[in-house]
Each structure stands twice: as C-alpha cells, then as structure tokens.
Amino acid sequence: MGRQDTAASATPTADRAPLAQIGHWIDGAPFARESARSAEVFDPARGAPSGRVLLADAGTVGLAVQAAARAFPSWRETPLPRRARAMFSFREALIARTEELAGAIAGEHGKTLDDARGEIQRGLEMVELACGASSILKGEHSEQVAGGVDVYSVRQPLGVCAGVTPFNFPAMVPLWMIPIALVCGNTFVLKPSERDPSASLLLAEMAAQAGVPPGVLNVVQGDALAVDALLDHPDVEAISFVGSTPIARQIYAKAARAGKRVQALGGAKNHMVVLPDADLAQAADAAVSAAFGSAGQRCMAVSVLVAVGEIADELVRAVAQRAAALRVGPACEQGSEMGPLISPQAAQRVRDCIERGVAAGATLVADGRQVCVPGFEHGFFVGPTIFDHVRQDMEIYEQEVFGPLLSVIRVGTLDQAIELINRNPYGNGAAIFTAGGGAARRFQHEVKAGMVGINVAIPVPVGFYSFGGFGDSLFGDTHVYGPEGFRFYTRGKVSTSRWPSREQTGVRLAFPND
Question: For the chain, how big is the Rg over CA atoms in Å?
Fold first, then answer.
C-alpha cells in the first residue's frame, strides 16, 4: 500500500534558518511539547527540507489516547443525526479548503496539484458516505420469534480507535477511516506518515471547525515508536493500518495478540492484462496513466503489464511513446504530469531496481535514471521506466517497487495470464482490457484479487463499496470503508425480550422451544 522507509533526521546547520515545526493535535488544539526526537520534512521537488516534525514518544501518544478516552462517553451518547450533521459540516470545510489542503500535499509529497485534488475528492466520498450513516447503522427487529418474544439487533461503537496511514495518500487514506469511525460514535487517534504530516493537522483543524468536540479526533506525529505505543495501549480498541506487507503483518500479529480489532492493508503487485482484441490506444493510455501517476507511488498502481499474444510488440511501442511524452516536473509548474518520489532513499531504491533489472537481462525500453528537471536538479525525480521481456524470477517482478517502473511480461493465452496473477502472493487489484465479454467475465470470476477492473486500470471502488485485497495485500477479515468499514468500527448486540402476561409464569428448566 505504501512504503515505510525510515525518515531522515538531521539537525539544522548554522547557515540555515530554523525549520518550521510541525507538531500534534490533541484534545482539540495544536500540541507541540518539546520532543527529544524529530525528523526533517522535505520538499521532494527541490530536495530541500521544508519543516521539522516532532516524533511522539509513548507519553505523548498516551495523552492523545487519554483525550480520546475522555471524549468517548459523551460522543457515544451524541445522537446519531447530530454526529452525521458534523460530517456534513466537515464536508463543507473540506470543499472550502481543498486548494489549501492540495497545496500542503503537493509540497510535502511531491504529487501534482491535480493529483492532490483528485485524492481529496476520493476522500470526500467517504465523508459523504458517513453523512448517510443514519440509514446504514439501522438495526433489525424480528417480532414473535417465540410466544411473546421479540429479537432485535443494534450496532454500537467500540471506543478509542487508531489509524496508521502511509505517505502516498496523506489525506485520502485518513479519510477512509476518520469519518466512518467518528460517525459510528468512536473517538480516534491518527498516526500519519512523518514524511508528509501537514495534511493530517489540516484535517483535524477542519473537523474542529465542523463542530467535532475536543478529544474526538487526535493526531500524533511519529514513527515506529508511536505505532508501538498505540498497539500497546490498553484503551485502544481497534487499529487500522495501510502500508507495506512486512509492517502490515507485524501490526496484525501484535494487535491480535493484544485482543484488538485490526485491519492491516499491505503491499501490491497489480497486473493489467491486455488481450489481442483490446482497443490498443485505450489500453496504452490506461497503462501509462496507471503506472506513472503519482510517480508510481500508489497502492493500486499498475506495475505489471501482461501482453497476451500478438499484441505485445505494438502495445510496448505505444506505451513507450506515451511515456516519453510525459512531462516530469514539480507541482508548482503548470503542465507537470509526474512529480518526484517522496525521498532520496525512495529515488535511489528505484534506481537500484533499474540496475538489477538490466543485470537480470530484461530489455530496458525507457530509462528514467537520468531525468533532469531544470531548476530542480536536487529534486527526487526518477522518470518513467519500462522493462520488456521480464521474467517471473526477476527481482523487479517479485518485489513491490513503489515507483515509476513498469514491467512487461508476455504470455500466449488468457489462461497463462490468469495463472501468472494467481501465483503472485499479492492480490490487491487486477485489470483486463478486452472487447470480449466472455473473457472479461471469466477473468473477474477466476482471478485472485480483491478489486478487479474491466477496461478500468485502477479499479478503486467508490465509497459505498469496500476496498481491500487478497493474500499478502490484506491481514484481517474486513476491508476498509464502505459497508465493511461500518462493521469494523462497530460491534453487534442482539437483545431478546419478552413482556409476559400473568398466565406465563412458572419454573421451566427445559431449553425454550416455543
């Protein structure tokens, strides 16, 4: 889902002005208690620090959880329509401050402003879903299940919930969690990525502006220490995570051992299959858009293009032509289509993957290592990279690169394409491009992936469905947002009632059967 590279930490030098400090949000207000640890936040386009984020220790995390625990009883008792109205107001705040939020995302993540606006719009869908919680959270009632007996069910909030979110979607992924958790009556502690922390504080400020009471939503900046503190805290009832597979596996295991409810979304290796009958131009456009948008730093990015049969040569040429025409540049320049990677470590990791792909014998069709953006020579840029004739035993196929690197694998039949995808340990998303309904139906029925696209390269579901994968892409039994999100953030309770008349008296030791 999102790489968990370690953030660089450094001390400002004497010849550089002190960096702006980025703190936390606890109990309805900014919180910036002096911390022994901090990390630089970079402007990836310039390759220079833009701020310094405080890294929470266990004590700071404890204060945030305490604030959420104090706020929970009152928020739980707040009538559901009032909680929903707060989400309506939160929606209006997000719309009014979209450009401010998009600028913060672009400045710290590096994605283009259009991409940042799109991220916010997809997050807004979750807020709009939460606005309709009154109809979603209705219980059930069965009358006269036995003599004078009725049974009914309700769903109740869990308590303090926490979210650990990745750098690649600093607004959208928190918005997968926060609106649904809050409207269900929970309180929430968010631990965003320390790479691009400012968006999280803007979201908390907007929630307060919308009337969400102090303590209901809290933000603690930090790294693994903060995550461990949330996992260890006895008052945290549930935790949601989006990130890399190794970390997702660890968080799932630790949270489960502690008796917490947990959903942990891991990595991906998304395949896009193109059949010979597909519209070539449409498929090539989609492959380039899905592979290189946000510099490939998306959990649903297409990283493997599976060319079936005789379409391969023509498809690779069309994709290469489109990739060569992409404009790589900073978000601040109009016309930029693809920005930098999040960090120098991320950029170097992708360059190293390219080196290993060449050494393994793959055909390098487009090489992004030498891209140079005038005026931004120190930025963390890697251009669109395409490898053809990739084999399944190559590292560039086996690993989640999480960068602008597209691998092309050639197969002879749809059977081979499905078998290839189903052997991969990841099962996040898969797509097929074809004009044949029979092939498309068979693909969506047989492929082992949680989200399937038919002539849609990035099949991220709309808000009223749920997002999640198979295999090593998901740990836990529920997906995020949509109907499964409401189930995750509530627990069911069933009540059986009887109001007996005077005739219905007497001791009965037998198990009731009427």
Answer: 25
> For 408, left (φ over 0), alpha (ψ -120 to 50), or beta?
beta
Rounded CA separation 423/224 (Å) = 32
Residue 131 φ then ψ, to 5°? -60, -25
pLDDT digits (tens, 9 = 90+) for 250-284: 999 999 999 999 999 999 999 999 999 999 999 99
Burial of 244 (0-12, 13-18, 19+ CB in 10 A): buried
**Distance from C-alpha of 509 to C-alpha of 506, rounded to nearest angstrom:** 10
Known catalytic residues are 299
**Strand duo 429-433 + 451-454: pairing:** parallel
Reduce the secondary structure of 197-261 to three states and give it as a string. Answer: CHHHHHHHHHHHHCCCCCCCEEECCCCHHHHHHHHHCCCEEEEEEECCHHHHHHHHHHHHHCCCE
Distance CA 239, CA 252 (A): 9
Smallest CA-to-CA distance from 238 within 90, 65, 463 is with 65
DSSP letter (8 states) at residue 338: B
Neighbours of 513 (CB within 10 A): 6
3-class secondary-structure state, position 41: strand
Nearest-angstrom CA–CA distance, 139 and 133: 12
> CA-to-CA distance for 501 and 236, rounded, in angstroms?
45
What are the tens digits of pLDDT across the range 10-45? Answer: 333 345 668 899 999 999 999 987 778 999 999 999
